[in-house]
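Thread: quick sanity check before group meeting

JM: Hey all, I'm pulling together slides for Thursday and realized we never actually wrote out the predicted structure for the chain we discussed last week. Dropping the sequence here so it's in one place. If anyone has concerns about the input, flag it before I start.
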Amino acid sequence: MKKASEFTEGIIGMKRKVRFLNSHYLLSALLLLLCAMVCCACGSIQDEWSVYVYMCGSDLESEYAAATADLAELISADIPEGANIIIQTGGAKRWQTEGISADALQRWRVRGGGLEKLGDYADASMGEAATLSDFLSFCKTNYPAKREALLFWDHGGGGLRGVCFDEKYYNDSLTLSEIKQVLENYCRQFDSKFELIGFDACMMSSVGTAASLKDCANYLVASEETVSLSGLDYTKISGYLRGDVDGAQLGRYMCDDFLAEKRANNIETCTLAVIDLGKMPELLKRFDAVAEYMQAQLGVHKGLRGIAKAADSVEKYGGANSDESYSNFVDLYGLCEKLDGQKMMDAIDAAVVYHVSGSMRPDANGLSVYFPLHASAKEVREFFAVCASGKYRDFLTSAYINVPKETVVFSDRGSADENGKFRATIKSTEFVIKCEYSVLGFTSSAEQEGGFKIIGLGSYGDVQLDEESGVITNTFDGRWPSVGGVPLSVSVIGRDESRQYMTAPIMLNGERTNLRFIRNHNGEYEILGTWKGVDQLTGMADKNFKVLEPQDVLQPVYQSIDEGTRETEEITGDTEISAGDVVIEDTILPMHNYQCAYVLTDIYGNRYESASAVFEAKGGKTELLYIA
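JM (edit): ok, ran it. Output follows.
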């Protein structure tokens, strides 16, 4: 928890106030009465800044006390004269800040090194548009200022799933459509717009988010990637609320402090950007042109494949495999660069006035876009509600609603090539965007009822697909990414010119999560941390990206397949590995027989598996035994 000592001081200060009330009851009662009388008049249009924080605690507070940590930052801040910070709390089953109730919505003002309660209100879902609307009306009526900012605090699910998942109301969330409607009504009612709208939430810096807010604010601050538990630095943000700081400058400060804090905690997967929403009309015009180009490519042989491969090759955000679920957000600038969309790239450069990113997100350019690399037609239709471009909606409708069946067909069961490696052939490469080598290991125990147990080691390896003939070959030498000599069940979730981004399921201190790491062009590995992924039901992204600590203990997790019944289950490896000793390296698989297959992914995210072959691993070499 960040700045716990500062928060403790704030709590001690509150407790001292309670003792003061006990010894000076009458005087305190009179002061409270006076406070109530002037409460609604303590803000002034002459104030320089008012920041309205919509804090949906969710499990981030009830389990991790993350909201409590950020409230501690606010309490410890040196807030300039003429600045107001107003907070609404709700959405958590338990609050770990003294005085905050889980049974009601509450409003607070940061004042005098503590939280001044402004009122209790009937409990309601923080994921309801009416709840947000009521809070903003209260803030604008009672705490107006020359410049006003709105910050959303909680989980985010990208432009598709929205933000603020209320755990007391079945994780009900605010969709972009709801936020857009509330804010447009707010701007009409009060004849004003926000100077800045920010999201301390995952994956909200998308072209859809920016398009939805373009008429409601001057600037947007948000992240393309997931945001770690510590989020924004509220102590420093509060200190910048002066008259000489506008939304663009405040956003820059927020970005720089965000990156500095993340780097101090070894989190290099972070991103944050400032978007000038006044530039969005031109950007959307250029986006329409890119979408028209995509639509035209549908009439070209392998045209859609080229677009999908471009999207698959640029930086992705959130989940990108079946264990972590699929977010389907990619960097917009990177995609347009692959498609030679220079005018669109120029428009992005103009709109993104500032952005920062850690060393593990070098190609983040500030704005993402939804691209259905792994999505159902149902999800694509859901996206249409927040799609920023009618032309892009037309393209997605043509390309991804009525998809063909069996886009990948194997010509044979495979054979041995001239090097004794497993070779397979497909009839057409038209729809293939990814080809991987899957390895499964047999259990060393005796034969099980119904067949042997097979343990999946994931998909990896150097694979070559000949575009003309459809022949697939490999150079697998029997080495596999392992930790402490124990093979991991790996997936490649992204790559750039110098490295591959990978993930593997593990148990960390007895809790299921995923280990994220990279492999560079020299074959060296670097661990990034652990992340649970995206909730498949709600689309809510895990905000608790964790860097390993020496006392952590991890165990690899595998998918087990019963050879007889073909039933699958997830099992945990027996080996416990101390995080202080964790080193990932390619190690030679133990001498044993293994099963392998080629796994191909088509442009719609469907996976096709070849017939299996059995090979024997022998000290860094493999020998094909037979085709299963």
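AS: nice. The two ends are 53 Å apart (CA to CA). Residues 455 and 560 are 5 Å apart (CA to CA).
JM: adding both to the slides.
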